[in-house]
Automatic annotation (TrEMBL):
This is ABM domain-containing protein. Gene3D superfamilies: 3.30.70.100. SUPFAM superfamilies: Dimeric alpha+beta barrel. InterPro entries: Dimeric_a/b-barrel.
Length: 98
């Protein structure tokens, strides 16, 4: 299993607009995606008001690639959110089950 951590920093002043996108579009999309076993969305905290994140657990690298393509190590974003985002990062790990 692959753990994918996706983090976004919004442009200043775009927090509310991105917040709507996050709850209305991104979370439902990720929860309905084949191959994702678990989605853990992270909303901003008072000390980091422009930062959003997703931790996703994928059943396999093949499923992840089927969703984002072979360039799975690049942080892809939807075109409708591009103008709202200042920066984004993506990290992948092998999930350790304890």
């Amino acid at each position: 299993m692959i753990m994918r951590i996706f983090q976004v920093v919004t442009r200043p002043g775009k927090e509310e607009e991105f917040n709507r996108f996050f709850y209305e579009t991104a979370i439902p999309l990720m929860k309905g995606t084949n191959g994702i076993l678990q989605v853990l969305p992270g909303a901003p905290r008072p000390d980091t008001p422009r930062e959003f994140s997703f931790v996703m657990v994928w059943d396999s690298l093949e499923s992840l690639k089927a969703f984002v393509g072979d360039d799975y190590q690049s942080p892809h974003i939807d075109s409708s959110e591009a103008e709202l985002v200042e920066s984004r990062t993506i990290k992948h790990y092998d999930l350790v089950e304890v």
